[in-house]
Automatic annotation (TrEMBL):
TM spans (from-to): none
Residue ranges annotated for the HTH gntR-type domain, each copy included: 4-72
Name the record gives this protein: HTH gntR-type domain-containing protein
Family matches, as SMART domains: HTH_GNTR
GO biological process, one term: negative regulation of DNA-templated transcription
Pfam hit, one: GntR
InterPro entries in the cross-refs: Bact_HTH_transcr_reg, Chorismate_lyase_/UTRA_dom_sf, Tscrpt_reg_HTH_GntR, WH-like_DNA-bd_sf, WH_DNA-bd_sf
Keywords, sorted A to Z: DNA-binding, Transcription, Transcription regulation
UniProt GO MF annotations: DNA binding; DNA-binding transcription factor activity
């Protein structure tokens, strides 16, 4: 097993132990030396696992002063996936692309059609990333009259994991939101990705 795979495996196991209640929020984890003995690895491997868990928001604290289980973020409830985001947001990517088979189906355009694309990271009131919205549309951008949403779950991508401070194999809600024009044809589609540890989904009265 490679060194990279080893510390990621250890990080995933520590995360599972935290979820099982072995350490409570605010409780310090054992030293790197003790954990290295438990996993029969070098202390540096445990340090990398702790760094990964801190980046994902699962652990907090400083390496030289000890780390502890982070308190869980506030849960939010999403009721309208088309409502304007009320807090800060950052546009992180505007690279255009060609319609894949999936996007072509969602937008009712031929596969390979040139599409505009934007990735927006939405922040919570504390400045922490709350969701990532990736949108695609065929220029020019047109207003919409209604929308439809499909809700599912999938692992986050590496890019989403970095933005949302999650482990790469973490599961997240994926809302496929497609906006429709007055004629009922798709004018834009988006993947709205929300961490499962920060969101509840409650949809009603969809138009």
């Amino acid at each position: 097993m490679s060194a990279d795979a080893r510390y990621r495996r250890i990080a995933a196991d520590i995360h599972a132990r935290i979820q099982a209640g072995e350490w409570a929020p605010g409780e310090a984890l054992p030293s790197r030396k003790l954990m290295a003995g438990q996993y029969t690895v070098h202390e540096q491997t445990v340090r990398l696992a702790y760094v990964l868990l801190r980046q994902a928001g699962i652990l907090d604290g400083e390496q030289r002063k000890g780390v502890y289980v982070a308190h869980p973020p506030a849960m939010r409830t999403l009721t309208d996936p088309d409502a304007p985001w009320p807090y800060g947001a950052e546009l992180t990517d505007t690279t255009p692309c060609r319609a894949t088979a999936e996007l072509a189906g969602r937008l009712a355009v031929p596969e390979g059609t040139a599409l505009r694309r934007e990735v927006v990271e939405c922040m919570d009131p504390g400045g922490r990333s709350a969701m990532v919205v990736t949108s695609w549309w065929r220029a020019p951008r047109r207003p919409h009259a209604s929308f439809v949403v499909e809700v599912g779950v999938r692992p986050v991508t590496e890019e989403e994991a970095r933005s949302l401070r999650l482990l790469v194999d973490a599961m997240a809600y994926r809302l496929v939101r497609t906006r429709l024009g007055e004629d009922g044809r798709p004018v834009e589609t988006a993947d709205v990705v929300l961490p499962m540890d920060r969101w509840l989904i409650r949809l009603s009265g969809m138009r």
